[in-house]
Write a structure and sequence with these properties.
Strand order of the largest sheet: 1-8-3-6
Low-confidence stretches: none
Strand content: over 45%
Length: 69
């Protein structure tokens, strides 16, 4: 589990692996989907390059992944 301060756009993952995200504060957008506090979403491995963008300031996310083997 990683806590991200989403201050600018960034890729969901540098590797082709899935990630589960939970928005803690602020708001953001992944593709055409907006998220806010309490929202969670899954980015599948085939979409690992999905760009996450903050919509305003103080956007924080939890990023949950499985350990690499």
């Amino acid at each position: 589990v990683e806590k991200w301060a989403l201050r600018s756009a960034r890729s969901a993952s540098a590797e082709p692996a899935f990630a589960l995200f939970v928005c803690l504060t602020g708001a953001g957008q992944a593709n055409d989907v907006r998220f806010g506090p309490g929202d969670f979403f899954l980015v599948p491995a085939v979409a690992a390059g999905t760009e996450l963008r903050p919509l305003g300031t103080e956007t924080t996310l939890l990023r949950v992944t499985l350990p690499s083997r």
